[in-house]
Amino acid sequence: MSNIRHMIHGLTRDIGFPVRRLLPAAAARTVGPFVFFDHMGPVEFDAGTTEGDVRPHPHIGLATVTYLFSGAMMHRDSLGVVQRITPGAVNWMSAGRGIVHSERIPDDIREQKVPVHGLQMWVALPADEEICDPLFRHYASEEMPTAQVGGARLHVLAGSAFGVSSPVVTSSPTLYVAGSTQDGAELEIPADVTERAVYVVKGEVTLDGERLEAGTLAILEPGAAVVLKAVGETVFMLLGGEPLDGPRFVWWNFVATSKDKIEAAKEAWNNRNKEVFPDIPGETEWIPLPVH
């Protein structure tokens, strides 16, 4: 019997640059606390343009987790944080009751034609924290612990895995690991986390002999260890954690335990309520609510 519950191939969307959206999906809306998963790039952006810039936009009820393989992005938010996001670092922004941020492509990345390639995740906050004060935490790449297990090199980004623990502060039990392997390397994925998924960023793997191509998210059956084997050089992610403490509503950039909270956030953003969604210092743009 297969230990893969669902195979999700995602849909490619154009948000000013191509992204593959894996979560939410019809087969599974969440994996542990993860409610949103975009794989962006790799893509090069032209100098002297704003292609790829994500203009100021609001969030509630979630934490954004940005992780890059190449390139860079410049984060700015309504807390006044300005942070260059670079490969291997973890950037954890907890929106709580409301935050506004932008992510722009730095000029040097455009001019040098460095491909921007990475993952953008959203983690739903626990119900008792969804209206907490917003915060932003940056963890440099060298702060992230690594483990060498057989032929796999693992970068533990959140939670504890393979004998090491990440310094990243999370609001609920979370597992997030970046891995790379050489051809033929094997890695046993333990069953010590209730909900788990494997995503292949580059290359190809097998899970208990079942092939998984790049761009595929495999959600694993709980309670069973699974053996990952690399077919050629691969880059993959392991994500999951404990199940959410209840269902979530997701609309545009808002995540909440009730539709009323979503409606209140829509009204606050539409009315330019600065108490809920303050301005970002140095930013002047504003994106209206989508019509849908």
TrEMBL record:
Classification via Gene3D superfamilies: Jelly Rolls
Occurrences of domain Pirin C-terminal (ranges): 176-272
Residue intervals of the Pirin N-terminal domain: 17-123
Transmembrane segments: none
Coiled-coil features, chain-numbered ranges: none
Superkingdom of this protein's organism: Bacteria
Family as reported in the entry's similarity comment: Belongs to the pirin family.
Protein name per UniProt: Pirin family protein
Species: Herbaspirillum robiniae
